[in-house]
Design brief:
Layout (H helix, E strand, L loop, with lengths): L2 H94 L1
C-alpha cells in the first residue's frame, strides 16, 4: 500500500468519523431539548404537587374542625335527650299522682 492509498483510506476514515460525530452531535442536541422539556414538565408537576399538598392540608384542618363540631353536636343531642327523658319522667310522675 503506497502513501496515496493510505492517505485515501485515512481521508475516508476521517470523513466517516466526521459524519458519525455530526450524527452524535445532532442526537445530543435532541436529547438536550428533550431534557429541557422534561425539566419544565417536572417543575410543573412539582408545583402541582405542592398545590395539592396544600389543599390536602387545608382539607385536613377542615375535617378536624367538622369533627369537633360533630362532637359538640353529639354532646348537645345527648344532653337534650337526657333532658327530654327527665322531663318525660317528671310528667309521668306528676300525672301518676
Amino acid at each position: 500500500m503506497n502513501i496515496d492509498e493510505r492517505l485515501d483510506r485515512l481521508t475516508e476514515r476521517h470523513e466517516a468519523l466526521t459524519v458519525h460525530v455530526e450524527i452524535v452531535t445532532a442526537d445530543i442536541e435532541q436529547l438536550k431539548e428533550r431534557i429541557d422539556e422534561l425539566t419544565v414538565n417536572v417543575d410543573k408537576q412539582r408545583r402541582a404537587m405542592d398545590d395539592l399538598m396544600s389543599n390536602v392540608a387545608d382539607l385536613t384542618v377542615n375535617v378536624d374542625k367538622q369533627r369537633r363540631t360533630m362532637d359538640d353536636l353529639m354532646l348537645g343531642f345527648s344532653t337534650l335527650t337526657e333532658l327530654a327523658r327527665r322531663h318525660e319522667y317528671r310528667i309521668e310522675r306528676l300525672e301518676g299522682r
